[in-house]
Amino acid sequence: MSEGISGRWGAAMLSVLRIVSSLIFLLHGAQKLFGFPPTEQRPPLFSLMGLGGVLELFGGLLLLVGLYTRPVAFVLSGMMAVAYWMFHAPQNLFPTVNGGDAAILYCFLFLYFAVVGGGTWSLDAARKS
C-alpha cells in the first residue's frame, strides 16, 4: 500500500504552515515598528510592545526562512504566552472575549515548531544536507 497523504505531504505541509504563519506573524512586528501595513498602534521601541515588535519581525523572518527554527520558535512561544497572560487574560479569562485567541494559537504553533523543526523547505534542512 502507499504511504498515504500524511507521509508523502506531511513534511512539505509542515513547511507551508511555518512559512504562512511566520509571514503573518512578522507583519505584526512590521506594524508595530514601521506602521506598515498601516495601523494606529506605534508603541515606543523601548517598551514591552516595542520589544514584542522586534521579536515578531526578526523572529518571524528567521522562522519564515527556517533558520534556527527550534530555538527561535521556543522563544516566540514563550513570548506569546507572556503576551496572553500579561495583556489579554487580565481583561477577561476567555480568549474570544479578551482578544487573545491569536496569542494562544501562536504560542502552541510555535511550541510545535520548537519540537518538530521547520520541515523540509527550510534553511535548517538545507544546512544539514
TrEMBL record:
Q: Where is the signal peptide?
A: none
Q: Which UniProt keywords apply?
A: Cell membrane, Membrane, Transmembrane, Transmembrane helix
Q: Does the keyword Electron transport apply?
A: no
Q: Does the keyword Transcription regulation apply?
A: no
A Gene Ontology cellular-component term: plasma membrane
Residue intervals passing through the bilayer: 12-30, 45-65, 72-91, 103-123
Q: Where in the cell is it found?
A: Cell membrane
Residues in coiled coil = none
Principal place of residence: membrane
Regarding the membrane, this protein is recorded as:
Multi-pass membrane protein
Q: Which PANTHER family match?
A: BLL4328 PROTEIN, OXIDOREDUCTASE CATD-RELATED
- Family the UniProt entry places it in: Belongs to the DoxX family.
Protein name, as recorded: Putative oxidoreductase
**Native species:** Alloyangia pacifica
* Lineage of origin: Bacteria, Pseudomonadati, Pseudomonadota, Alphaproteobacteria, Rhodobacterales
